Amino acid sequence: MTPSDAARQDAGPAGGGPGREAGPPPRLSHREVVTVLSGLMLGMFLGALDQTVVSSALRTVADDLHGLTSQAWVTTAYLVTGTIATPLYGKLSDIHGRRPVYVWAIALFAAGSLLCGCATSIHQLAAFRALQGLGGGGLMSLAMTVVADITSPRQRGRYQGWFMAVFAGSSIVGPVVGGLLAGSDTLLGVTGWRWIFLLNLPLAALALGVIVRVLRRLPHRPVRHRLDYGGALLLAAGVVPLLVVAEQGRGWGWTSPAALVLYATGAAGLAGFVAVERRKGAAALLPLRLFGVRSFRLGTLLHFLVGAGMFGATVTLPLYLQIARGLSPTEAGLAMLPTTAANVAVTLTVGRLLVRTGRPKPPLVLGIGSFTVAMAVFATLRVDSPLWHVWAGMLFMGAGLGAALQTMTTLAQSEVPRADMGAATASVNFFRSNGGTAGTAVFLSVLFSAAGGRIAERLGDALEDAPTRRLAAEPENARALSGVLRPDGGVNLEDSAFLRTLSPRLARPFLEGWVDALQAVFLTGAALMLAALVVALSRVPDVELSDT
């Protein structure tokens, strides 16, 4: 019997009402599961590749569009819209089925990619990244939902481990491809970095063809709910202002009138969202009753904390390699390979371990602990640290994420009713994306808030030396410094390209101040991961997952 035959035999009436628990879906064979996964992994690779390609080339893109200090918008815009869209995808897929919703996600992602490749300013690029995020928000959450549909809690680690390996694999290909494209002046008459986005178009077409074919094998039991538009609008009204102030607070001032207005707007939006979701009950965009499930509650909290650290480190570590160490985008991408190797190895190992033992807590604790150590190692980096020092931190980071990410997802799904699986899995990804958005904004805010003062201090000390002052007065160095040093003694960090022409002796204070600021960023990340470790150790129960 094929999966579709089994679905027709077992599904019964469509829907079942808002509060009715759907029966278990037909159990697929390993071969049938792999067939479905082939399509899902291609869609996930599409979204994951885009994130890693962009991160490795962001400095080049920002320099070309003259917006280094505004680069956070390029990452934050994608994460904001992806965060808001993720719960919508979960509920839409529960109502209409996984396949049509997945098709729309890929189409939106492709349209955003095309526009990103045509952007002419950093803010225009950020706007198009927001459209791209509307599609990207569904690529990973829908894949995880489908796996939960067709496997038992104990078996999920095995298959979700494959997803994590795909995500890690994209981090091998992404930085290298991104670096090569960003390092090319033009390719077929188009600026090299623009191909980072245009490359998504043929990949999206391929993913669309495979998804349409393989997800026909997936049974669907529709849920008779109307989409919670009011909840979606209030969620956006609550989350977006808080994320904006997190990114812009360093420039406005954390207690400025604009920041205070956004705090109030966000708080009002979230309060309204909670009130609406309580009234909606089972039809809610994010059913509040799910937070009564301990495993779900803990899983979402850990996803938020670890997501903040993961995305924050992913954005700031390439900046250390490219600015402080002077690596090209391609070299920086290749230098990140230890993270990927450790991630893939640990992900596959932990997936098999979960199938054998059914106990997610041990790898979860070890994973978050390893990531905490990685942040501490990064916080000790200096301008002249050997590469093995960086790689040591990368190994801990890759191993930690490989062990933690899949176990957090499995934990959050383990006790959720099947009828709510789409909304629950989307909620998990919502909290991870929300954490990633906040983490990226906060990490970059801390970085640029600290960098200006640290660089000015280091440069002031250097210029007390007479030979250094004479060096700074030389025509070539004076030209480079004229666009960087402000009349008030501050430093313009919009463009780091001047470091390539500045004398190494004069560049040293800039690099040392930059690394001082990065150390503050990674210490913040270490404190955040330590908090996550305390939660995992003290609150997560050491239980065995069900195999049904």
Notes on the protein architecture:
With 548 residues, the protein is an all-alpha fold. It has three domains: 25-227 and 285-452 and 520-539, MFS general substrate transporter like domains (Growth Hormone, Chain: A, Up-down Bundle), CATH 1.20.1250; 228-284; 453-514, no CATH class. 75% of the residues lie in helices and 1% in strands. The protein has helices spanning 3-11, 30-64, 71-96, 98-116, 122-150, 153-182, 195-198, 200-214, 229-252, 257-280, 294-324, 329-335, 337-357, 361-378, 387-413, 421-462, 466-473, 475-482, 504-539; strands at 186-187, 190-191. Strands 1-2 form a two-stranded antiparallel ribbon. The protein is globular and about 75 Å long.
Jot down its keywords.
548 residues, mainly alpha, Growth Hormone, Chain: A, 3 domains, two-stranded antiparallel sheet, 2 strands, globular, disordered N terminus, cell membrane, transmembrane transporter activity, MFS_trans_sf, MFS transporter, MFS_dom
